């Protein structure tokens, strides 16, 4: 799948910048201080996710934790501090390799890194806390919905999930955050040529940003048997999103 190839390329070329697109996180600009800033953002965001879940759906057990799209371990490493079992899933071999180096750097021995959710299921059949943050937006929504359903299958009874998706952009208020039809058609026509230019040149790999239909997300959540749900709305650089805080009965 094209997004998988792109994330492998990001992992090889500029893994930290691909997670947080700020100049100080470019590979060429990384310093011990910027790396500390990078991982501090992960600590802060994980804390906020857990606080959101507690506010909306009650207690959160992080004893068995699963992250989908762990990248270089920005949130996974702080998550491992309170987990007995901590599993990070990422499709990119290069990202997982960098995450493994960071696990060594922080002496995190309870983290396991895998490529697919099937491997996570084999490690631990059910998880008490599952989260994915600023990741699903990079997947085609039809695939992302399947991922959400698969993640919820792994959520233990009484377990909590925090899943983030984007749903629109603030610069399109007339169409409720959705890109007008004409612009979408032009984008889809140009996409193959744009991919070719990226592969032939020295440009950064592509990074898809996709909007989800929240009705479909809610349908998948309810079909999975989840009845308790809270929301936190987000805005990352004009990309509007929602964190679904979920509790399985």
Please provide a written account of the structure.
The protein has 249 residues and is of the alpha/beta class. Helices cover 44% and strands 21% of the residues. Strands 3-2-1-4-5-7-6 form a seven-stranded mixed beta sheet. Helix 1 crosses helix 5. The mean pLDDT is 92.
β-strand amount? 15-25%
SSE succession: HHHEHEHEHEHEHHEE
Specify the structural class.
Answer: alpha/beta
Biggest sheet: strands side by side, in what order? 3-2-1-4-5-7-6
The low-confidence parts are: none
What oligomeric state do the depicted chains represent? single chain
Strand segment count: 7
Q: How many separate helices? A: 9
**What percent of residues adopt helix (DSSP H or I)?**
40-55%
Q: Largest sheet, described in full?
A: 7 strands, mixed
Distance between the termini: 35 Å
As a whole number of angstroms, the C-alpha radius of gyration is 18 Å
Mean pLDDT value: 92
Q: What's the shape? A: globular
């Amino acid at each position: 799948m094209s997004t998988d190839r792109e994330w492998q390329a990001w992992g090889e070329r500029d893994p930290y910048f691909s997670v947080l697109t700020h100049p100080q996180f470019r590979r060429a600009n990384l310093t011990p201080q910027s790396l500390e800033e990078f991982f501090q953002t992960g600590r802060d965001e994980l804390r906020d996710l857990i606080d959101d879940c507690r506010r909306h759906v009650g207690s959160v057990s992080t004893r068995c934790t699963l992250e989908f799209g762990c990248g270089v371990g920005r949130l996974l490493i702080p998550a491992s501090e309170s987990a007995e079992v901590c599993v990070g899933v990422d499709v990119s071999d290069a990202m997982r390799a960098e995450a493994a180096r960071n696990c060594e750097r922080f002496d995190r021995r309870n983290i396991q890194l895998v490529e697919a959710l099937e491997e996570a299921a084999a490690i631990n059949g059910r998880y008490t806390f599952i989260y994915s943050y600023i990741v699903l937006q990079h997947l085609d929504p039809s695939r992302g919905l399947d991922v959400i359903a698969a993640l919820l299958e792994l959520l233990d009874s009484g377990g909590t999930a925090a899943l983030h998706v984007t749903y629109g952009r603030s610069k399109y208020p007339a169409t409720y955050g959705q890109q007008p039809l004409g612009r979408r058609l032009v984008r889809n026509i140009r996409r193959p040529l744009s991919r070719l230019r990226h592969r032939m040149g020295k440009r950064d790999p592509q990074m898809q940003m996709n909007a989800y239909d929240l009705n479909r997300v809610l349908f998948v959540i309810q079909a999975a048997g989840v009845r308790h749900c809270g929301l936190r709305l987000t805005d990352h650089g004009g990309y509007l999103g929602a964190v679904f805080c979920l509790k399985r009965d």
